[in-house]
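TASK: fixed-backbone design
INPUT:
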């Protein structure tokens, strides 16, 4: 046992739901190491044992060769006593850790391998719109609790068939421990409903695609919520979407099949192409090319919001439509994205020409993220699916804080230790449904992250819904409440992005915010 080492390792960061346990298993096999790995809270725990030089090589490859969607924030390594009986490496049951730092896995756009299977007529997942693997698929939008395992997601009601179970347990398969794994035999299904009736499975997807080609408007349930979609080249269904959403002029996002199609709609740099095809699959704002779309898709602006398919259902619809599709959330302006079938039937069915809905529950609703590339950097303009919750490193160690955000275009933030976790875009809190989604997100994000706030921060405006909620929380809990001047919060946010700069002159001109004299100010110049 003289040259045998055993290491206990804790990996924190985005390491659940990204194929990290299978990655660890493959490395252990490569370096002939025994031991085990398990999800624990929001982290990964493992022990490896073998030749000292193999342990060193394993540690080097652990981060260097990690799956692309993973982000390792901390690696803790301790040498412990070797176990002379252990000869194999296994993935063991997860552990509910109470005090570990947690990081929530985000949704990942469909990978190339799954896309090939989806379109391969010989594959058992041919045209199956829930095809996924360790490298792609839903994560945050289906998670109820951590650690991230199937029984703690909305996939728990779908029991793996023998073929899928074999893939899940096969260490050389790319679906080894892929928690949302499914196929047409055992997984979720789509149903299409229109005035002619309803149909399920492949027939449902085919009927929905046919409706699009005929110039109709349909509702489509995806990963993070329900969209209204139609041909982006036909002004008539686009007008209908605008009437349904009461959105007369605001630009609508457009989904295309690949970067080549995106370049036909807008001026596409290599950096913007990288953003489009990245795992987050956000809406990317591009300089608009004239004539490629119906004029009423983005009237009066010189940009167009473009995104690539991030769910298999989008690939299938685009393949049949053979044209760009408008892809806009089905909710009215300022309301939260619609996520459940009952609400869709109530709020959309009587207006859209059809509904394409599936039977997998969306736990955490997420609008599509919106980004723009300017001056050599990517700017996130709306935080949503694929990017949320965002974990931002803080310059110091902080006690647990909940920040309630603003009234319009609201998000919340939960911070503890050295990290701030920013939620997805929630909408305008003047809307009762948005306020309900705000309360749900406060509760769920705190539980997922295992953070119990000891302080709540809110806007100084007494009539903001977030402020009223924070004051009630303060009265109920007896814990401290901090109210922040609106423009000071903006200025602090900018300064926080550049911690090396110590002295600032910040011009905060955002339109309106309560001033220190009790009146509404359009902006401030702040020195400090």
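OUTPUT:
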């Amino acid at each position: 046992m003289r040259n045998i080492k055993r290491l206990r390792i804790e990996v924190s960061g985005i390491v659940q739901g990204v194929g990290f346990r299978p990655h660890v298993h493959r490395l252990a096999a490569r370096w002939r190491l025994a031991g085990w790995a398990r999800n624990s809270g929001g982290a990964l725990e493992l022990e490896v044992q073998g030749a000292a030089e193999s342990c060193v090589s394993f540690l080097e490859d652990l981060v260097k060769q990690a799956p692309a969607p993973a982000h390792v924030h901390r690696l803790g390594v301790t040498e412990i006593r070797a176990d002379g009986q252990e000869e194999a490496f296994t993935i063991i049951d997860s552990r509910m850790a109470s005090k570990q730092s947690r990081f929530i896995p985000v949704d990942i756009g469909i990978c190339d391998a799954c896309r090939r299977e989806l379109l391969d007529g010989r594959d058992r997942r041919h045209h199956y719109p829930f095809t996924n693997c360790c490298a792609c698929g839903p994560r945050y939008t289906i998670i109820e609790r951590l650690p991230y395992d199937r029984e703690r997601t909305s996939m728990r009601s779908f029991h793996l068939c023998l073929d899928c179970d074999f893939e899940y347990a096969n260490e050389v398969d790319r679906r080894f421990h892929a928690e949302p794994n499914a196929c047409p035999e055992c997984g979720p299904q789509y149903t299409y409903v229109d005035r002619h009736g309803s149909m399920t499975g492949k027939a449902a997807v085919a009927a929905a695609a046919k409706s699009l080609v005929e110039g109709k408007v349909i509702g489509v349930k995806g990963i993070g919520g329900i969209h209204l979609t139609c041909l982006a080249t036909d002004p008539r269904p686009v007008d209908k979407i605008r009437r349904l959403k009461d959105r007369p002029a605001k630009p609508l996002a457009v989904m295309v099949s690949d970067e080549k199609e995106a370049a036909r709609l807008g001026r596409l740099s290599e950096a913007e192409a990288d953003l489009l095809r990245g795992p987050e699959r956000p809406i990317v704002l591009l300089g608009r090319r004239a004539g490629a779309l119906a004029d009423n898709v983005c009237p009066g602006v010189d940009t167009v919001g473009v995104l690539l398919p991030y769910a298999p259902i989008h690939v299938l619809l685009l393949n049949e439509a053979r044209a760009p599709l408008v892809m806009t959330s089905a909710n009215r302006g300022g309301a939260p994205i619609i996520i459940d079938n009952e609400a869709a039937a109530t709020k959309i069915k009587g207006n859209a020409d059809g509904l394409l809905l599936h039977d997998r529950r969306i736990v955490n609703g997420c609008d599509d993220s919106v980004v723009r590339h300017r001056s050599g950097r990517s700017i996130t303009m709306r935080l949503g699916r694929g990017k949320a919750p965002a974990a931002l490193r803080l310059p110091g160690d902080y006690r647990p804080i909940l920040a309630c955000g603003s009234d319009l275009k609201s998000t919340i933030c939960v911070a503890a230790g050295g990290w701030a976790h920013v939620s997805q875009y929630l909408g305008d809190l003047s809307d009762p449904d948005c306020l309900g989604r705000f309360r749900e997100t406060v509760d769920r994000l705190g539980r997922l992250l295992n953070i119990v706030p000891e302080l709540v921060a809110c806007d100084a405006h007494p009539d903001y819904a977030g402020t009223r909620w924070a004051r009630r929380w303060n009265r109920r809990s007896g814990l401290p409440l901090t109210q922040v001047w609106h423009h000071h919060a903006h200025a602090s946010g900018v300064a926080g992005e550049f911690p090396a700069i110590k002295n600032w002159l910040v011009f905060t001109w955002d339109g309106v915010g309560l001033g220190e004299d009790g009146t509404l100010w359009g902006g401030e110049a702040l020195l400090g």
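COMMENT: The first helix runs from residue 20 to 30.
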